[in-house]
């Protein structure tokens, strides 16, 4: 009786063996870095808009307020991501080995 090894069976079902499979190009860490950069850009734009408003050079108060709210929401979103990551990390630390 010939017994085939399990490793050969598992290799045929790995994602690299599936036709047309392409690994994701965006990893979680690069996604987080991208969101941090976007939030930073929005906060800088809001700071610039606020400076222009304070100096009297802002032409459109409505657009300035929209820019400020977008930056605020983006920061709150990023803060919630951080909170969820910290909660997940703390849960991992509490795991019994």
From TrEMBL:
Checking Pfam families in the record gives: FliE
Molecular function (GO) terms for this protein are:
cytoskeletal motor activity; structural molecule activity
> What is the first-listed, main subcellular location in coarse terms?
other
Q: Does the keyword Lipoprotein apply?
A: no
UniProt KW keywords: Bacterial flagellum, Cell projection, Cilium, Flagellum
What is the annotated localization of this protein? Bacterial flagellum basal body
User: What PANTHER family does the record point to?
Assistant: FLAGELLAR HOOK-BASAL BODY COMPLEX PROTEIN FLIE (PTHR34653:SF1), PTHR34653
Family that this chain belongs to: Belongs to the FliE family.
Q: What is this protein called?
A: Flagellar hook-basal body complex protein FliE
Provide the organism lineage as a comma list.
Bacteria, Pseudomonadati, Pseudomonadota, Gammaproteobacteria, Legionellales
């Amino acid at each position: 009786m010939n017994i085939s090894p399990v490793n050969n069976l598992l290799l045929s079902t790995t994602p690299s063996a599936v036709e047309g499979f392409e690994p994701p190009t965006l990893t979680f860490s690069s996604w987080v870095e991208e969101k941090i950069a976007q939030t930073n850009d929005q906060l800088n734009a809001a700071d610039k808009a606020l400076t222009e408003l304070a100096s009297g050079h802002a032409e459109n108060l409505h657009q300035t307020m929209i820019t400020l709210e977008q930056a605020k929401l983006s920061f709150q979103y990023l803060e919630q991501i951080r909170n969820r990551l910290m909660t997940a990390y703390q849960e991992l630390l509490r795991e019994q080995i």
